[in-house]
Amino acid sequence: MAEADITLSGLTKQFGDMVAVDDLDLEIPKGGFFAMLGPSGCGKTTTLRMIGGFEEPTAGTVNLAGTDVTNVPAHKRDVNTVFQSYALFPHMTVAENVEFGLKRKKVPKAERKQRVAEALELVQLTELANRRPTQMSGGQQQRVALARALVNRPQALLLDEPLGALDLKLRKQLQLELSRIQADIGITFVHVTHDQEEAMTMADQIAVMNEGRIEQLGTASELYDTPKTAFVANFLGTSNLIDAKVLSRSGEMAEVEADGGARLRVPASVLPGSDTEVRIGVRPEKLDLEAIDDGSPSANGDNVILGHITDAAFVGVSTQYVVHTEGGDELQVFVQNSADHPPNLGPGRRVAATWDPTTTFAVNREESDGA
Amino acid sequence: MSEAVAPAPGKGSRGRGGPSLRRRRALIPLLFVLPGLAWLILFYAIPIVSQVWVSTQTGNPDDGFVQTWNFSVYPDAVSEYLPQIGRSFLYAGTATLACLIISFPLAYFIAFKAGRWRNLMLLLIILPFFTSLIVRVVAWQTLLTDDGLVVNTLQAIGILGPDGRLLATTFAVIAGITYNFLPFMALPLYASLERMDRTLLEAASDLYASKITAFRKVTLPLAAPGIFAGTLLTFIPAIGDYINAQLLGTPNQFMVGNVIQSQYLTVRDYPTAAALSFVVMIVVLILIAIALRFVSTRQLSEAAAA
Ligand SMILES: Nc1ncnc2c1ncn2[C@@H]1O[C@H](COP(=O)(O)OP(=O)(O)O)[C@@H](O)[C@H]1O
Ligand SMILES: [Mg+2]
To answer: What is the pLDDT of residue B4?
Structure first.
């Protein structure tokens, strides 16, 4: 990991009895696109506001580029925020809005004009420099807010659900644009969102937040392929979670026994600690179904769980099955519709659900299931 | 709107049927304007015209007045009552400024800090105005009277000399006007501050503005429509006020309102009274026009759209 740009240590914020941010530790690397992902109300905005200096932590510290800024007021912190409501000054033109921070920093006029022009160029708003924000569309206002923050060349840019108010098409377009801009200028972006797809497509690193804490930190594929908690497993896509007992841990693959008696293999590296009671998981699209009208399925090294189909929904590219296992679990299975896999398995069929053991992950057992 | 596609046979004489409908439609906006127009003519245009008509008449109350187009009444009235006219603008201006200085923090507090006390505090601002103007001014008379609590206290702490008084001074008149017009300033100010998006202040501090700078660059400009409206609502009626000067001042504090009142009701020199009224109105209109040049309506409506 690159050197840390923003370090949060033991950061806590209480509103009365309500703990919005709970003893949070986080290192945000310099120069990357960092996303904080979590459901509404999990404390993302509050965390961002403490980094920006708009909210005073109940406990803990905020470190910016190696300096403790916990007690530094917002206007003296070298970070800028893109507010969810944009918060553009309605009595100023677009150019005046963008110029605002530079004026406060007493940047000489000639340089100011040039930097404003560059910032507007960056967000492709040069022609609208003399418009008022009230005469602009949501997407345009969003870009003004971005230019107004970036023109100051801050240490880090904080974005609170910056695309939340836009329609889907515009959101997709601006996602790409934001990624491009971040790559161009290399300032650390801390992007808050509740949209897992947005976080996964844009960010180099994602911190998944839940109830005021960081659940897991990692790249999109790390989080998706090896979620560590049930919350992460379910917040990023769909997961099948099965309770199991560890039988053996020798070698690269451990062996576990699921409730129905099925013996399954799991990469030893994903099993937490030395617990014997574990909960393993596998993504629906990693599973395959094989009809077993008589005899036993061909195992050939895959994990196998037996059950019968209770629901089959044809959705075009794939068919989504629900399989009731002998152990009493419900498995979601997404099978691609292709020549070898005609969507011909109906409810009631006995099937074997099989998957490559290396795609298995394991989550903490005591965690309750998340969203 | 459905247009007739083909005229029904037998209605040929009316042509395409359109023009009359179109003409009727064109009349609709006029119908909407009519009540307002009637109001303006009845209560605005007619009084002004009649005022000018009266002002150039000559005569006396006993024999009656006749129209002689005596325009010299204007320079005569102005030169005779110049001190009172000047005092009106000076007192009204000072009181307006005092209202602004008192109202701004008050409105700011109610809009931003009062929380659930907000409605109660607004009510308290208006509450004194449930009693009549005269009663309020007489109450101030009692308050500022020579042996009253206020004067005695100020004498005790040495702000007023032993013979110093408050009643029958310029201070009393201006203070009375300030008090009586305060809500006209405070309420529009409150309205414009209350509408302001508070995250704008966070945005300003995010962009390196200190609290004071954020106030100067964001709060104040966005309150401009309220300041402007409050100033007009206070200044204009304050100019015509005569109750405060009458009850809290002496003839040395009399304003143009006192003159007009006595010319109309006591001396019954209607032309002079009408001429003075007209002059004051024109001066006020000119002042508003000048003010509007500084704060353009465009700016106002844009700030208001925030
Ligand atoms: N000023 C506040 N006063 C009281 N509670 C608050 C305040 N701000 C946020 N909260 C509470 O803190 C929790 C986290 O809020 P927030 O950080 O806005 O979540 P998110 O941005 O992830 O949706 C929520 O339950 C919210 O109701
Ligand atoms: Mg939020």
So the answer is: 43
HSE-CB for B297 with a 13 A CA cutoff: 2
The CATH T-level fold of domain A230-370 is OB fold (Dihydrolipoamide Acetyltransferase, E2P) (2.40.50)
CATH number at residue B256: 1.10.3720.10
Residue-wise pLDDT tens digits, B141-190? 999 998 889 999 999 898 888 888 899 999 999 999 999 999 999 999 99
Helical pair B73-80 and B82-112, crossing angle rounded to 10 deg: 70
Would the pLDDT of A185 be above 60?
yes
Residues of A in contact with B197 (CB under 8 A): 85, 87
Domain ranges of chain A: 4-225, 230-370
CA–CA distance, A356 with A329 (Å, rounded to integer): 19
Q: Which class for B258: exposed (0-12), middle (13-18), buried (19 or more C-beta within 10 A)?
A: buried
- For the domain spanning A4-225, the CATH number is 3.40.50.300
In a domain, B139, yes or no: yes
Can you give the pLDDT at residue A137? Answer: 92
Q: Tell me the whole-structure pTM to 2 decimals.
A: 0.81
Instruction: Find the closest chain B residue to A145 by CA distance.
Output: B203
B197 with A85: Cβ contact below 8 A: yes
Interface predicted TM-score (ipTM) = 0.84
| Closest-lying ligand 1 atom to the alpha carbon of residue A43 | 17
B302 touches chain A (CB under 8 A): yes
